[in-house]
UniProtKB/TrEMBL annotation, chains A, B:
Annotated compartments: Cytoplasm
Biological-process GO terms, alphabetical: intracellular phosphate ion homeostasis; negative regulation of phosphate metabolic process; phosphate ion transport
Every PhoU domain range: 17-103, 122-203
Protein's UniProt keywords contain Transport: yes
InterPro entries: PhoU, PhoU-like_sf, PhoU_dom
One matching Pfam family: PhoU
Protein family (similarity comment): Belongs to the PhoU family.
Record's keyword terms, sorted: Cytoplasm, Phosphate transport, Transport
Its biological purpose: Plays a role in the regulation of phosphate uptake.
Assembly, per entry: Homodimer.
Name listed for the protein in its UniProt record: Phosphate-specific transport system accessory protein PhoU
Listed GO CC annotations: cytoplasm
Length: 214, 214
């Protein structure tokens, strides 16, 4: 019974990790679509979000099967509930990647990002995607300390976000208001994506610590 | 055992309903803080969000206790998992209300909303809060059809959101870029709040229908 539980839990972890990998891929593609004003790629990212939603539903089904058949308690139960929460948050990361792609789609044929901000937006995307890459690993092989690490990296995301917002709302802004509002939303989507990654890492740490303390 | 399960489930529903009522109250206060540039009220809403986070943690604990002690299966299990998802989404509604209040806080002493848009923003807040009021009832006494109803009202929210975004990004906009970006974020927070309410109603409907079909 315990072996079967742990092998099913392992499978749930793999599902979550694969789902997170889909969300990172969506984020990277969305970033390219935004920076290169690639309408077709943007549409593909928006359409592919459905896959991530379905992956979340499958995680839910696995978790429910586990609960129904194994009736876990204590730290094992907490792990399953953690997985349910994490699946929700990763699905939300997928949504945010799709929102980023949508920004490119709506602005087409214009490019959302003026040339002078390409560097900062690229960096924002790179740091956020790197956080989610780390999460893919943490989901596969949980270890404590992931939260502290992602939380620290999130400060870089917040700093780039703040810098970009300062540029966008500066009186010298020369690209008009529709561009300013699209960009403000775009950088917020990145910031929220990173926040969700931190939030998943926090849940994982808690589940991990719980196990170790048990 | 079954009676005890249903009485605990009842208590979980009450907790969720009360938590949703806190989120609506936060939304209404945040709206007032934004429209009246009330810095003190905005700070209270931001601070009170912690209460909603704690309410979510308590819902989680109740759900885990239910799962551990009662080991529900089939539709009963689905109801508990539904509650876990709903608690997450309602907590997010609280976050969004706090983000709205934060918009007022950051703009202070200026008012985020120009006088000519007061009517539309007030309406946006009223409709979104009304949706969450309905959710408070649905959480207490689930019945099918709530999703269709909230989904329809959400179209009003989307229409006001679109109208406001058109005004904000119109060439005649006379209030500068920081105001435009703050407002674009503000109306998006309302729109997201309403989306979360729809999403909770959808989960409730599914759980309801599942029970009726079982």
């Amino acid at each position: 019974m315990r072996d079967s539980f742990h092998s099913e839990l392992e499978s749930l972890r793999e599902q979550l990790s694969a789902m997170c990998a889909q969300a990172v891929e969506a984020l990277r593609s969305a970033g390219r679509a935004v920076l290169e004003a690639d309408h077709e790629l943007a549409e593909r990212v928006v359409a592919a979000d459905r896959e991530i939603d379905l992956a979340r539903d499958r995680c839910d089904e696995t978790a429910q099967r586990l609960l129904a058949l194994q009736a876990p308690v204590a730290s094992d139960l907490r792990l399953v509930i953690t997985a349910v929460h994490c699946a929700d948050k990763i699905e939300r990361m997928g949504d945010l990647a799709a929102h980023i792609a949508d920004t490119a789609r709506l602005a087409h044929p214009a490019c959302v990002v003026p040339a002078e901000l390409t560097g900062a937006v690229t960096e924002l995307g790179t740091v956020a995607a790197g956080m989610a890459d780390r999460l893919v690993e943490l989901l596969r092989e949980p270890r404590s300390g992931g939260y502290a690490q992602l939380n620290e990296t999130d400060q870089t995301v917040d700093a780039i976000h703040a810098e970009l917002m300062n540029r966008i709302t500066d009186t010298s802004w020369a690209y008009g208001i529709p561009s300013a509002t699209s960009l403000a939303l775009l950088v917020r989507f990145y910031e929220r994506f990173a926040d969700q990654a931190v939030s998943v890492a926090k849940r994982l740490d808690f589940a991990c610590t719980g196990i170790m303390a048990a």
